[in-house]
């Protein structure tokens, strides 16, 4: 099997990433458009981490650090490449980034209905915090 390559996304990857999320990611976000991802990569060029095998995009994770908290979003592995250690490799890269930046704890946004993801996150050492409830307010239409 071809070696897995982990690297940050660049401006030339954005359309590929958006198309990939339509196939591999669960749910959608208000920021799942070119402007949103372009802003992310422009503000923090190492936040969007890609996994490639044989030149093909097979996984992503967003490892955002605001100087206070470490947030994980969009951990997605192509359905044809799951259970091959790609998610584990992406999380390891994200966690290494957080430690390098001085982060102390990672948190992940995981859809309640995505049972498959719950198993993957638990296997990686993450656990839900039942005492917290996410509150949101859209800032744009």
The CATH superfamily appears as Gcn5-related N-acetyltransferase (GNAT)
What helical percentage do the residues reach?
25-40%
The residue ranges in which pLDDT falls below 50 over 5 or more consecutive positions are: none
CATH C-level: Alpha Beta
Kindly state the number of beta strands.
5
Q: What is the general shape?
A: globular
SSE topology string: EHHEEEHEH
Biggest sheet overview: 5 strands, mixed
Protein name: GNAT family N-acetyltransferase
Pfam families: Acetyltransf_1
GO molecular function: acyltransferase activity, transferring groups other than amino-acyl groups
Keywords: Acyltransferase, Transferase
């Amino acid at each position: 099997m071809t070696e897995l390559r982990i690297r940050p996304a660049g401006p030339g990857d954005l359309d590929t990433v958006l198309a990939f999320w339509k196939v591999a990611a669960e749910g959608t976000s208000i920021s799942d458009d070119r402007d949103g991802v372009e802003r992310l990569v422009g503000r923090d060029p190492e936040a969007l981490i890609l996994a490639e095998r044989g030149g093909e995009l097979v996984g992503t994770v967003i490892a955002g650090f605001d100087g206070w908290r470490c947030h994980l979003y969009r951990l997605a592995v192509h359905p044809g490449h799951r259970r091959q250690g790609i998610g584990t490799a992406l999380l390891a890269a994200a966690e290494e980034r957080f430690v390098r930046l001085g982060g102390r704890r990672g948190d992940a946004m995981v859809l309640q209905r995505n049972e498959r993801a719950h198993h993957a996150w638990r296997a990686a050492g993450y656990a839900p915090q039942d005492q917290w409830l996410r509150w949101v307010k859209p800032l744009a239409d």
